[in-house]
Amino acid sequence: MAESILVVAEQREGRLNRVSFETIAAAQAIAKDTGWTVEVVLPGDGISGPAQELAAKAVAKVYALEGASLGAYTSDAYVFALKAFVEEKKPKLVLFPHTYQVRDFAPRLALGLDRTLISDSVGYKHEGGKLLFTRQMFQGKFAADVSFAGDGPWLATIQIGAFRADHAEAGSAPVENVTAAVANEVRVTPHEVFQEAKQAVDLSQAEVIVAVGRGIKEQKNLSLAEDLAKALGGEVAASRPICDNGWLPLERQIGSSGQTVAPKLYFALGISGAIQHIVGMKGSRTIVAINKDSEAPIFEIADVGVVGNLFDVVPAVTEEVKKVKAGA
After folding, report:
1. Domain-wise residue ranges, the chain
2. Which class is domain 203-327?
3. Taking the model in full, what pTM does it have?
4. Among residues 114, 95, 214, 108, which one has the least CA distance to residue 163?
């Protein structure tokens, strides 16, 4: 019997977290090197729709792991259900997207299975028949290749943006409905999802991000980024100094101490490109940097670089975007 990779996909209120497809892309890449098969499990309740979305990828099978206790996320229910499922299916490797939810329950699941968890992997290597996962250390200054000791199932989480969702190969897979095995030990009663403020946002889901750095100079100049983001239908974000100053809320900070993002389009306005910021956005598909310093490190990873005063360049870009949209 061939070894398998099990991807644990994530949904919320019936909507897939798009980073699930990034994890499928990672699993497909590993499968090509190892010869293993790829399967996907989606925990939840009433999830036939998102399960069918996952089935449109080149995987062997999608399991809709359903139960009333999985309708609203609790770590107890997820750990009980996934532990029983993994023990039954016996995959060689279990992959998760490195989301807030996974960070909550995956360590407990690993403990319950008495297995090791390698978290926040940015890549992998398959050398001499051995599977290694790459993790960033010391805020991205170093990278370490880590291997598993002992038998599977091995557990690993994949950093957002480490693999591209559009690289997940299309296909047609069967969907199998599975009743979740959850003991009557769920200690948490979930209530309605609480959102602290209207501006609270999960930037990992944004397809367009306009981020600002020290070059914006004053809080009142944030309107330049906001206008561009509005024209592009995107979100505004920032490097750490902007959030430390209180100019934008902390949930809009990108970097090693903030969110990790991988949008289709990332504008870096007045951002020098310190490693702490780059590790949070380098997975973006297209990076456009605008900075008056031609030696700024951000230009080393930018797909498009504009050396100039952002106070002149950004309004001109915004107007061009508006013209294109008006003519569309």
Report:
1. 4-179, 203-327
2. alpha beta
3. 0.75
4. 95
The one-letter amino acid code at 327 reads: G
Q: Which residue has the tokens 């199998």?
A: 176
Least reliable range by pLDDT among 8-17, 162-171, 197-206: 197-206
Q: What percent of the chain has pLDDT over 70?
A: 95
Chain center to CA of 186: 27
Do 4-179 and 203-327 show the same overall fold? yes
Q: What is the 3-state secondary structure (H, E, C) of the chain?
A: CCCEEEEECCEECCEECCHHHHHHHHHHHHHHHHCCEEEEEEEECCCHHHHHHHCCECCCEEEEEECHHHCCCCHHHHHHHHHHHHHHHCCCEEEEECCHHHHHHHHHHHHHHCCCEEEEEEEEEEECCEEEEEEEECCCCEEEEEECCCCCCEEEEECCCCCCHHHCCECCCCEEEEECCCCCCCCCCCCCCCCCCCCCCCHHHCCEEEEECHHHCCHHHHHHHHHHHHHHCCEEEECHHHHHCCCCCHHHEECCCCECCCCCEEEEECCCCCHHHHCCCCCCCEEEEEECCCCCHHHHCCCEEEECCHHHHHHHHHHHHHHHHHHC
Name the fold adopted by 4-179.
Rossmann fold (3.40.50)
* 198 pLDDT above the threshold of 60: no
